[in-house]
Design brief:
Strand 4, helix 4 and strand 5 form a beta-alpha-beta unit. The protein is an alpha/beta fold. The chain has a single domain, classed as Vaccinia Virus protein VP39 (Rossmann fold, 3-Layer(aba) Sandwich). The radius of gyration is 15 Å and the shape is globular. The longest helix has 16 residues. A 7-stranded mixed β-sheet has the order 3-2-1-4-5-7-6, sandwiched between helices. The relative contact order is 0.14. The protein binds S-adenosylmethionine (SAM). S-adenosylmethionine binds next to helix 1.
Length: 188
């Protein structure tokens, strides 16, 4: 099943199934302020970024699934775009902060997406990628389940993502967290 159709079906229940995130944590790690713009790539329903709107000057969200975007719109996110993350509709060096939450492994060409993130973010800007940490047993089981469900996803390890990002910046750090995911944070 094409991935956007799967998320079209899941959209109305997605937030309830996955759960909330603490916006304060995101404000800290992304160094948000009302002078910076934020782009949420593969942002889905805006589950995470909708609460960050009041902390930034502009919030943009791109996602392939129109139904996920419909849920984001209900939360009041205005700047929505139904686009593949491999071709972001933004000028080079135009966005201060970019977040990719639990979405990278769904993108068919992850290296191309990372190249796009670094193209679009401003010099000195921050890119945060949160991905399930494939070193954990539960994530290995999730990866197998997604393969069996023919979702076409591929979970790279934080070290592999770090390596992909290092082609564009030497300032990349991996921060494990208490959930089953890791943050890979790059500064251009
Ligand atoms: C697991 S959801 C995560 C959504 C959101 N980031 C969150 O944490 O709630 C993955 C999202 O990636 C989107 N997606 C999958 N492939 C995509 C692509 N090539 N370009 C843009 N979005 C894509 C899906 O539609 C879905 O909304």
């Amino acid at each position: 099943m094409p991935i956007n159709i799967l998320f079209d079906i899941l959209a109305p229940i997605y937030d309830r199934v996955i759960g909330d995130r603490d916006p304060a944590e995101m404000v800290d790690v992304l160094e948000l302020s009302n002078e910076v713009s934020l782009l949420d790539v593969g942002g889905g329903t805006g589950r995470v970024s909708s609460d960050l709107r009041k902390h930034v000057s502009n919030l943009y969200l791109v996602d392939l699934s129109l139904t996920m975007l419909g849920e984001a719109k209900k939360k009041g996110i205005q700047d929505l775009s139904s686009t593949s993350s491999e071709n972001l509709p933004f000028q080079s060096n135009s966005i201060d902060r970019i977040m990719v939450m639990d979405a990278l492994h769904h993108f068919p060409n992850q290296e191309k997406v990372i190249e796009e993130l670094f193209r679009v973010v401003k010099p000195g800007g921050i890119i945060l990628i949160e991905e399930p940490d494939i070193n954990r047993l539960l994530v290995k089981l999730i990866a197998i389940a997604e393969k069996l469900a023919l979702m076409g996803s591929h979970i790279h390890s934080p070290t592999e993502i770090n390596k992909m990002m290092r082609k564009f910046s030497s300032n990349i750090n991996i921060i494990p967290n208490e959930r089953i995911s890791a943050w890979i944070i790059g500064r251009k």
